[in-house]
Known about the structure:
The complex is a heterodimer.
Chain A: H1 3-8, H2 10-16, E1 20-25, H3 29-39, E2 43-48, H4 51-60, E3 67-71, H5 79-88, E4 97-101, H6 104-112, E5 117-120, H7 126-150, E6 158-159, H8 160-173, E7 179-186, H9 189-196, H10 198-219, E8 222-227, E9 230-236, H11 242-253, E10 262-267, H12 276-288, E11 298-300, H13 303-324, E12 328-337, E13 344-356, E14 360-362, H14 364-374, H15 377-399, E15 405-409, H16 419-429, E16 437-442, H17 443-448, H18 450-463, E17 466-472, H19 479-482, E18 489-492, H20 494-503, H21 508-519, E19 524-526, H22 532-541, E20 545-547, E21 555-556, H23 557-566
Helix pairs in contact in A: 9-10, 10-11
Chain B: H1 4-10, H2 14-20, H3 25-38, H4 41-49, H5 53-69, H6 73-87, H7 95-111
Amino acid sequence: MTALNQMYDISEINAKNRKKPVLIVEDDFVNRELLNAYLQQEYEILCAETAEEALRIIHGNSETLSLVLLDLNLPGMKGLDLLREIKKDIDLSRIPVIVLTSDTESEVDSLNAGASDFIPKPYPRHEIILARVRRSIELSENKDLIRWTERDQLTGLYNREYFYRYAEIYDTFHQDEATDALVLDVSHFRVMNERFGRAYADEVLKRIGAELFRIVRSNGGIACRREADTFQVYCPHMTDYAPLARQVTAAACGKDKGRVHIRIGVYPRVDKTIDMELRFDHAKSAADSLRNSFSESVAMYDESLRAVEAFTERLLDDFRTALAQKQFAVYFQPKYGIRSPKPVLCGAEALVRWQHPELGMIPPGRFIPLFESNGLIRELDHYVWREAAAQIGDWRKRMGCSVPVSVNVSRIDMMDPDLADTFCRLVEENGLSFDDLHLEITESAYTEDSEELIRVVSGLRARGFKIEMDDFGAGYSSLNMITKLPIDALKLDMMFIRTAFHETGNTGILKIMLDISRYLSVPMIAEGVETEEQMLTLQGLGCDIVQGYYFARPMPAKDFEAYLKSK
Amino acid sequence: MLTIESLRGWGANVDEALVRCLNNESFYLMLVNKAMQDAPFDKLKEAVETSDLDKGFAFAHSIKGMAANLALTPICKPIEQITELLRHRTEMDYAPLLEEIEEKSRQLMALL
């Protein structure tokens, strides 16, 4: 008896409950009756005379069936084919199969196809058959227990922790073989989850899991579900991954062709001296490089990505020093009210720039997404808020006036329970009014956990802060949700201006966005306005405020001070 | 009526078969009765005579498994022989073997 069996005395529990079901697949009456006579005391016997009938029973009892006894010589579909069906199906492959045969050749074939044992014909003593059945069931139950801990419950693939361990074992047996590390994920999985529901998304993940299982089973290698919609494969080197991408995509889509797009990042011919997790981090970097591409499905980890990673490392290493040495500078970009024919300066947005002593001026696009992904953005945001608030306070003190300045509040900041207090303290310490500091919250933050966010934002508004919804139109909000949001202004995503004026020349979408802002009775702020034509068009459509190079670029505080004086 | 003694007299290895049948004589006799009624002797003959050797193999193989389990020794020998020949699709005159199988099965049927 195994240690675990002793602990819980499983055999006793089983005896008290129902018998374990065993399926006999045998077309011959005599053979079937003999097996039935041997096993019926201990097991619940199910019978099938053909492979087709057996498959139906197996699918209907896939979770409970303890064993299949399979005759190879069946009418119609042959026993060996049924065995292969069972073993290639991720849901059925756990069921042990004992093959009944009188041919030595078939014994080898069936063991190769995944049979756990065989029973010869004519049958040996019934005690032998019973012992073999018991042993196969016990072995498979032990294996099930291990599976339970090492497998992802949804897809049946390994979970991440065990995967790394198995990958190391794989290496010991394939030392000189070129091996690839793959990371696969689903583009815009979160959106799919919201649009089609959790059950549908889970189905897609299960289909991907089953397909990857099938692929590694035939090509070699191992697969796991890393987390959420991300999978990993460690397999023999391949030169072209496009067919695999098509295969997995087709499986993921099922009947809904084109609905799911799979991205694959490949770190080919891995360096086996580096850490296993790092190999998959490289593959993940490659997959992430496809984030905004719908036309490409496969990306390789190569020299250029290696350079990007090295640069990223450098930025992360230098972050704390940069904060301490105030290498981050707060710039101000004017906002203009355009409701009257003559545009009027009505505010500014505080934007951060990194003046790196060795790398020079680093554009925000290079470091903000990075700091957002690892949480450092929180410290940077606090720094910018402090600097901006102090600057506004200074202008108020020295010049007796200022304009409202909006600061960016990242998604992660919204989870900070002290957020409202922090802003109140900044207002108080710098002698500001609540109207001096506007808070820009990105639209995508709202879709994450709307209820909680609405509560936080409502709290901030109750204290007197003005809230601008940033990147409006880029975050996939439903129109229904937008009507419930507590906001004071919509800030149109820059992409709309770019598309309307540069790509399509069609300003219809701008009109719709403006209609939404009017419906919500909040002003619309358009960013990225670069030309007079754009400004006049937006003015004509009824846009309230614009910001962009047409009026002014973001500028350092002292330049903005001069600018403010001149206006 | 089929009895243990008549089966033994015909040549079946009754002792071996009874071990397999949990020493339950009536269970054994019931299985022999049913098997002889169901066994595809006619189909085997027809398939071989029409030169459908693969089909013939499937029938022979199935009879072979049943006969071996019931230790019907006089049938086992020719049926094992024909199964192996058919497995390899041997082109030959199967009439003598078929006749022997028919003869043995007719003898057994007479005991039922």
